[in-house]
């Protein structure tokens, strides 16, 4: 169960807006985190407010914090990934899963379905494998995760090999066709309750670098010598950019979902840009989706949203 938080202690600004079931909703207990993952200690120091914290601009510190959070909250040992791969912010990733759980509960008498009967497809599982790890740790769901990057899959598999309980619940697949999404990954007789995805945000590597430069300038940490900026959450190739960027990827995902309309209860994707939503809604009308939801999410000042859609009516979803 999620740990209890003291209601009299205000949430840090970065934690405000998180889902009520999010285990990271309260302040980080760094003493407890270091106790289960001692490597974190070298990154922890007092901040300007006198609180223990890490430098969230340091990729190694973010990886160490993630490793400790996964060990403390879900019993996941040995999580790691090469520096070039996306190191996800765990609170936000957990929120996505909690909101999808709420979506399933709507036609399940308000009760979140748990256990291995619930099957979830992760589009672009990545080297971090974060959604399957948290989703199985929280709800016991079974996952299939696929990616176009063999090295990323090998890294994810190394984590699963170290955690046999999770390995039994999570299957990894290689997508050989870079422009395909569901095609070749959903078998003829397979059924899923959910799909989820964190799509590439940018349309090109140059656009991704320009976005990084703006971020570092806004933080006042741009290198005056003009060195390429680093990302605290990393990112590699297809994790960051694809033809058409986020909007193009989601349009392709919606188009392909129509071919698997009877094999998945809810399709979904994270959407970072608010301008993508009306484009996606037009695409959903074009393919005949029965219903769609836009679920707002917040973590401090960061705003994003989940777009979920289904081809089943209410009675069919309940059944």
Distance between the termini: 29 Å
Rg, Å, rounded: 19 Å
CATH-level-2 architecture of the domain at 82-203 and 235-318: 3-Layer(aba) Sandwich
Strand segment tally: 9
Unreliable stretches covering 5 or more consecutive residues = 1-9
**What's the SSE pattern?**
HEEHHEHEHHEEHHEHEEH
Query: What structural class do helix, strand and pairing data support?
Result: alpha/beta
CATH hierarchy class name of the domain at 82-203 and 235-318: Alpha Beta
How big a fraction of the residues is strand?
15-25%
CATH superfamily of the domain at 82-203 and 235-318, please?
Answer: Vaccinia Virus protein VP39
Q: Can you count the helices? A: 10
What kind of assembly state do the chains in view correspond to? single chain
Mean pLDDT: 87
CATH level-3 fold name of the domain at 82-203 and 235-318:
Rossmann fold
What is the helix fraction of residues, given as a range?
A: 25-40%
Strand order of the largest sheet: 5-4-3-6-7-9-8
Biggest sheet: strands, sense, closure?
7 strands, mixed
Give the CA-based shape. Answer: globular
Folded structure, characterized:
The structure is a single chain. This protein is α/β, with parallel strands linked by helices and 319 residues long. The chain has a domain of 206 residues: Rossmann fold. It is 34% helix and 16% strand. The chain has a 7-stranded mixed beta sheet, sandwiched between helices. Strands 1-2 form a two-stranded antiparallel ribbon. A hairpin with a 2-residue loop joins strand 8 and strand 9. The longest helix has 16 residues. The chain is globular, with a radius of gyration of 19 Å.
């Amino acid at each position: 169960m999620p740990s209890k938080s003291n209601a009299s202690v205000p949430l840090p600004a970065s934690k405000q807006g998180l889902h009520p079931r999010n285990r990271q909703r309260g302040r980080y207990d760094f003493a407890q985190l270091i106790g289960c993952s001692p490597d974190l200690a070298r990154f922890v120091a007092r901040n300007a407010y006198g609180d223990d914290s890490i430098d969230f601009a340091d990729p190694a510190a973010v990886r160490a914090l993630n490793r400790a959070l996964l060990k403390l909250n879900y019993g996941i040992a040995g999580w790691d990934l090469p520096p070039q791969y996306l190191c996800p912010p765990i609170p936000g990733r957990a929120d996505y899963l909690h909101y999808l759980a709420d979506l399933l509960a709507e036609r399940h008498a308000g009760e979140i379905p748990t256990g291995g009967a619930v099957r979830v497809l992760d589009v672009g599982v990545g080297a971090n494998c974060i959604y399957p790890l948290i989703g199985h740790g929280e709800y016991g769901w079974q996952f299939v995760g696929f990616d176009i990057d063999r090295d990323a899959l090998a890294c994810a598999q190394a984590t699963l090999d170290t955690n046999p309980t999770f390995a039994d619940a999570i299957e990894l697949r290689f997508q050989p066709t870079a422009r395909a999404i569901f095609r070749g990954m959903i078998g003829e007789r397979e059924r899923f309750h959910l799909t989820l995805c964190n799509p590439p945000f940018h349309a090109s590597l140059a656009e991704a670098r320009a976005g990084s430069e703006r971020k570092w300038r806004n933080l006042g940490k741009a290198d005056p010598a003009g060195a390429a900026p680093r990302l605290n959450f990393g990112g590699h190739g297809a994790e960051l950019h694809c033809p058409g960027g986020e909007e193009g990827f989601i349009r392709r995902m919606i188009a392909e979902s129509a071919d698997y309309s009877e094999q998945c209860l809810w399709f979904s994707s994270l959407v970072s840009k608010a301008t993508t939503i009306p484009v996606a809604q037009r695409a959903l009308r074009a393919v005949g989706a029965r219903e769609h939801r836009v679920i707002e999410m917040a973590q401090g000042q960061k705003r994003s949203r989940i777009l979920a859609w289904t081809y089943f009516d209410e009675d069919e979803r309940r059944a």
